[in-house]
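TL;DR need structure tokens for one chain.
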Amino acid sequence: MHLQDILYGVSIQNLAGNTSREVSALNFDSRKVGKGDVFFAVSGTHTDGHLYIDQVLAAGAAVIVCERMPANLQQEVTYIQVENTAEVLGQMAANYYGNPSSELKLVGITGTNGKTTIATILFNLFRALGYHTGLISTVQNQIDEQIIPSTHTTPDPLVLNELLRSMVDAGCNYCFMEVSSHAVVQHRIAGLEFKGGVFSNITHDHLDFHHTFDNYIKAKKEFFDKLPKNAFALTNADDKNGQVMLQNTKAQKKTYALKQIADFHARIVENRFSGLHLEVDHTDVFFKLVGSFNAYNLLAVYGTALLLGQDKLEVLTLLSNLNGAEGRFEDVPNQANITGIVDYAHTPDAVQNVLTTIHDIRKGNEQVITVIGCGGDRDKGKRPIMAQVACDWSDKVILTSDNPRTEDPLAILKDMEAGVSPSNLRKTLIIADRREAIKTACHLANPGDIILIAGKGHEKYQDVNGVKHHFDDKEVLREQLNLIG
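>> reply
TL;DR here they are.
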């Protein structure tokens, strides 16, 4: 492919060399650069790509895209200076793969909680409606039935555009994609054309990366600010920051809510462990999902489907038969007559949502036993809050490890313990080994009790010092409950 073709729409500050040359591939990882490649010197969180320009030139790079021109320019190399290399990477990656996002209806879902559930249900709904559909999510990426493992909530621009091109080539009409705040700030979605954007909610999370809650809100808002006029922006009107997302968007503004007047409205008629009974825009529907937070997720899906031109009654009929995403308020069947629930909740708000849902449904005489941890190398400020929330809404709490990464698990647990009030200490245990913590919860439970294992959800590993060891909360919980059943 010619370099000039993939420079379409790119704002160039300075240029040295030939743009009519052929290029082999695009890379921002210096270790992967080969002969004839374009190298993007991205200033990242951990390192600066400009430090590796000499290394990639030695490996045969033909084009350097950078924010600062090197002091010595090689005559046979093309140098392109731009304001923001990360953003240009997204634009050029889209051009390189033929702008696949313009050939399907791409909808991005953002927010602290609910992204995976909303994206997954939309994917399953549109497949049930008869469309070839793609999914980009935290749990996995999918092209119809083909499953592609996921490593990030939102992949890098090269992986992302290659994935979207594969979806187009497979005949996909739609793609539903989680859009993380990191992805917005790091320009991973630059160059993509969205048909719509959906906002779920925003609560305390990722402050290790964004530093302030205001920055976190701005990152989410930036996604909506950049939506085009022919797109829609659907927001949760019950969230206090829901309207903030719509302030500067050019897109068609729409809302959904349980408590306020909105374009798409629902009312919870009944909430049980077996599912939700909702009145959606004056139509009674029973759903398999549980909890008020899932009422919002279902409403977001319903609103999105109608904004994409689907029939109301057909959408509601199909939605009533769909399950949620893996590891999201997932029931673990067992022989012990104990309700076992695994959930990805890893923010204070998400933990409270799950536990208040359990509280609303429980009969009152059963114990709620919660096993919970906090990830290492992540926002430390939420650790004591999560422990406090778990204690306030549970009869017994076991604090344990959850992907300690490079941190000492006991130091993380000490941070969590700081949030446990003196009155809650008596019902709190600290067991660093997650398997032992789940085993202990099962032995503390009696028939009829409820065990919540929070934090990891769909994950099948424990990340310890950069090594991912196999660990599946559902697998361990089922094994332990059936042993006592």
